[in-house]
Amino acid sequence: MQLSHLAMHRNVLLFALVAFLSLVSAHQALGTNVDLSTPVFELTDPNLHIENETDVAIVVMGATGSGKTTFINLASGSNLRVGGGLKSTTSMIQVAEPFILDGRKVTLIDTPGFDDTTKSDTDILRMIGLFLATTYRGGKKLAGVIYVHRISDFKMGGISTRNFRMFRELCGDSTLKNVVIVTNMWDHVSTDVGEAREAELAREDFFFRPVLEKGAQMVRHENTRDSAHTILRRIIQNHPLSLQIQRELVDENKDISQTAAGAELNKELMLQMEKHKKEMKHLQKDMEAAIRSKDEETKRELEIAAKKLQDEMNRIQADAQKLASKYEKEKADMEDRMKQFADQSRRDAEEAARNHERQMQALRDQISSMEDDDDDDFFPTLFKLATRVILGGLL
Ligand SMILES: Nc1nc2c(ncn2[C@@H]2O[C@H](COP(=O)(O)OP(=O)(O)OP(=O)(O)O)[C@@H](O)[C@H]2O)c(=O)[nH]1
Ligand SMILES: [Mg+2]
After folding, report:
1. What is the pLDDT of residues 184-240, one digit of tens each?
2. Would you say residue 361 lies in a domain?
3. Are 137 and 124 in contact, with CB atoms under 8 Å apart?
4. Please, which residues have CB less than 5 A from ligand 2, an ion?
5. For the chain, how many structural domains are there in total?
6. Domain identity same for 200 and 300
């Protein structure tokens, strides 16, 4: 086609260019061009990307190393850090990038387990409590909660049962219909063994039976994106509900140590303390025997063991006291951060709007000056203008 012929349609092209550049510019002004591969730590953001009624937020819980982050990455296409060794990997709450599933914007929230190797259980409870209370206070409810359990676990040991007890106290009974227990790592067991364990988990009062009877579901995850999405489809249509700890902390204005989860944790800490006290009594008896028999080496070993035990008891004691006192301070800090966050967001939005208007005005000026130019100059100028704006947007 001749250049001169194309020039006849320049008004149409101008209109298309302005529309396109407006879109590029508006997109940048709104800041929606996020890098999906970047982990996002957004404790300060109470909105959880819930802007419409159809937007959903789902929290993922479970023991350390159970596969919470792997599940979230698979489902959302995020790249949050996954563990490989014995240490806990996720020791903060992480909010994954939202993604679209069946036309709904879904945000998954990753949490650390209660047996974290780098943080105490009280630290974890304060962190989760603060996050859930802050989002709930901001008017955001969760569409569901996922609890991840490894079917490959030889038995449901102390750590798993403790995690699950804490999970139950966080959720409360009335939210259980929005709870999905996800069993994973099926590739680590034969089908027979996996199915037998699954049946036992569903049958025993000590395991998942009480929650399944109250409306929770248990489903298998096959470690694929499709499987993760199939599981999420069970949740995204839910009517969002508040969790027990949200009601306790926000509606009832309870101190965190008075919540059911806080009381459960305190009970656990007291049980540990009782156990350690008994161990200490045994050590003291052995020490007396070693002194009587002048066995210096045994006495030294027992002294070291007693010192370790005493340190552990001091830690538990301090932990129990820290739960209430630190929560109040963190809550005040969080409210402060939230206010700063809201102020900053407002300033950013105003600045973006001003920039947007400036760019659009410059564009309108350039286009009207082009309209006065000769046809011969039109396409080179149009090309230069488009290149400048697109490059300007990318840089
Ligand atoms: N075979 C198999 N491995 C899995 C599956 N899910 C997770 N893993 C592996 O299990 C390990 C722990 O997974 P993570 O996703 O880091 O577990 P997590 O629950 O987030 O762990 P923390 O952040 O430490 O609490 C990693 O090596 C994963 O690759 C699964 O469904 N099948
Ligand atoms: Mg993790």
Report:
1. 999 999 999 999 999 999 998 889 999 999 999 999 999 999 999 999 999 999 999
2. no
3. no
4. 69, 89-90
5. 2
6. no
